Fold this protein.
Amino acid sequence: MPKIDIETAPKGGGSRYPAPFNEPCLDRRWTGLADAVGLTQFGVNRVVLPPGVWSSQRHWHEIEDEFVWVLEGEPTLVTDAGEEVMKPGECAGFKAGVRDGHVFKNLTDKDVVLLVIGGRDDADHGEYSDIDMRFKPGRYSGNGGYEHKDGTPY
């Protein structure tokens, strides 16, 4: 059935990053809206960031575009241009191949809720702007992972 029951949709949380890079993201939670109806060409996730939690490490994608819509709360978007507080109803988009990393940080005392939409190309790879880490192709097939920017595995 095409209608998604949010209560029974797949849920997850935490981070797959190696320590200590996982720490700011450990309490994030998401609901896999695209997964709930078997979509495979793009992902749609409802992401909840409790106070103090980040959406990710600041990163960019080589192949996949990414779009984020703020549903609730006031996250701080961090890019190469600096920091900007976003309000509910505001959106941001990140074009594939642009080496301007992004992250949403919840620096408030209330939950932030984001709708995150992006591609699902198993060849996608990218880097983390502020740390010595990049993600390898294979995230969707289970063959990906993380390595230092010089190629040394974590």
